[in-house]
Amino acid sequence: MAALDVAEWATIIGTWVLVVGTLSFAYWQLRQAQRLHSATTVLELRERFYSPRMRKARREFSTWLLDKARHDDATNWEVGVFFEQLGFLTRSRVLEKQMVWNAFGTWVAAYHYFLTHPQNLIERWRKEGNDPLVFREFDWLAHEMVSFEARLLTRSGGSDYSVDDAKYVLEAESRQGADSDPF
Hints:
Order of helices and strands: HHHHHHH
Structural class: mainly alpha
Number of strands: 0
Largest sheet: none
Number of domains: 1
Shape: elongated
Helix content: over 70%
């Protein structure tokens, strides 16, 4: 009878090990599929970011942001809306933060810096429109990208992102042609 008890326990334990192993493998597969989807989406967003239409919008928006005597409001919101959508997808974990930083972090930080300096236009637009959600996700994304980069730079002994970095990026954006090579 004792041998039968050992066999029964071995079967029960073996079954549980198999169930746990199967669930672990299924979770791993799901995680890999999510990562692949995130990577594919980021690559598609990069294609959109480099499309002639978006490059024209980036050139116009960066030129407007760099203009010290700029008029009150931008005429082209496509760049800000793009970053707003990117922020939403990242915050909701459809996209992985590190992938987004790698693909767009420099631009997100640069555009956000000039939208909030010397005057915080995002806050002004929120107050004027009585809408606290204006560019909420873009704002969140910019803070996440700068924080992520700061952590990486701290580990490698580099220096923090600066206004000169942001200005360099937007000056390059303002000089690009819609059909020119981005690099």
